[in-house]
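Let's study my pick:
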Amino acid sequence: MSGSIPKPFIEDLVGRTDLVELIGSRVPLKKAGREFRACCPFHNEKTPSFWVSPDKGFYHCFGCGAHGTAIGFLMSYDHMSFVEAVEELAHRMGLDVPREGGNAPAAPRVDESLYALMARVAGFYQEQLSRDARAASYARKRGLTPQTLQTFGIGYAPDDWSEVLKRFGASDASREKLSAIGLIIAREKSDGWYDRFRDRLMFPIRDVRGRVIAFGGRVLDQGEPKYLNSPETELFHKGRELYGLYEVRQNRAPLRRLMIVEGYMDVVRLHQAGITYAVATLGTSTTPEHLRRAFRLISEIVFCFDGDRAGRDAAWRALQNALPEAKAGRELKFLFLPDGEDPDTLVGKEGRERFEARLNDALPLSEYLVTHLSTAIDIRHADGKARFVAEARPLLERVPAGPYRELLLERLAQAINLSGERFVAILSAMPGDSNRRANPANGNSESFGAQPDTSSRTAAQQRRITAARSGGRGSLVRQAVQNLLLFPAIAAQISQRDVEALAGIEEPGADLLHEMLVSLHEEPATSTAQVLERWRDHPAGARLAALAAAESIAPNAEAASNELRNALQRLARATTAAEIDALLAKDQAGGLDAAERERLKQLLTQSRDPA
């Protein structure tokens, strides 16, 4: 896997993006002073409360609270992952996304002419569907409406061995390109080529930008294989792509879950019925990469399988592949349809509401795992329980250490009437066991605004610290952080001495203020959006985004700079006074040593002459 995207590149990309143009191409914006406004695209409203600030590079809705940068907007509106959003912004500017570190080089840039050729062939297939009476009749018989055919770009490959070859492969170079994208195949016993897809309903597979990267073809009558997919090519890697994901992202309703089904027709008919969160794997089992890609967008995935033996076998394979991605905060569920039914036929009979009602019966991964093992094993006696533990162990070991694994272990133990401790003891006693009891990671980073321990402060110290706060406008630190966030260029006006002085201040958020100043001294930023992207993964990232959306304290950069310097001076004075109080209290209680007395003398001198 290639390395991460350098943060300076991301910040520069966000700084160069015209946020008004980006959002305005999707949402009608109206100018309102120095900003722009619209009805929020993330919730229904009649009065505009969605504001876009080109100066900040930031958007905010005062109705639902949605806010973010250009990257955040693409992630929320176009349902992109973070990396996909960065790549989309880079593509808009004609830039390649650099990578750093990693064990493998970044993938080479694909020839854009291959995408153009795919698009031309897809258009040809669509034309053929409209002209071929038999293919059009088949599409109608399967219940597909003209709107659905257009939305998914469904077409028809003629019943001819060389129609695509004749139309798009006139030269050696064009034939090589058709071969490279899997549309023609070289003959084995003679020179020449022939079309891969013939007499099939064609389902174009699109990437995140809507470009056709492959096809799936279904026979109209009897024939094998029933479905034929494009081979792996420069454009297409079936272990990563999900059919219908592009169409899911075009739906502007909030995306709360993905339903993974098995066939192209299942996806199309579900979307047509209004279940616009259905996707399908492409002739392969669900892979960890499929799940990682899906979990970048949502936190709930429902696997939907036919109720027959083949469907249950596919579900068990999906569960085993899903275990490495089972973590706290994610939901994996399994929905089994009645025997003899698939999503395509069932949604046609029942409609959207009744089909979606079945989701209430979907089994969480933990329950499906227990049910599957319990059905295959008689757990009423010791032998069966021992086998249950043995079967569960390799599955449990595939789950990442953390809270979910702990809870899953407890559920497995409960299934055979054992305590969690006893279950672990049996696991540990098994030969060759590599199981380790997983403990949740203990995070120790404080988010901005967390209150430090004040139990050891004297009353006088607490009064000094309280005096450093400004009523009605939040603490001095909060004001300083917001000024720095909204006008990051003012960091250059703060002396290194004042930055270093922050390191000893015990005020909530002072560590973040210090970290921001140090970072902005080393790598200056010019916009709020750049600062937010730099701190996107920081524990205080969400709090900073909220501050960016709050009303500005200072009207301009000059006022912000003055307020920031004033806040730093007041914080320093309050900290000095608090330390003086502590030393005086100790002197009264039991006396100071020589070093402490010298420190008190130094502090008293500084308090009289701050300069």
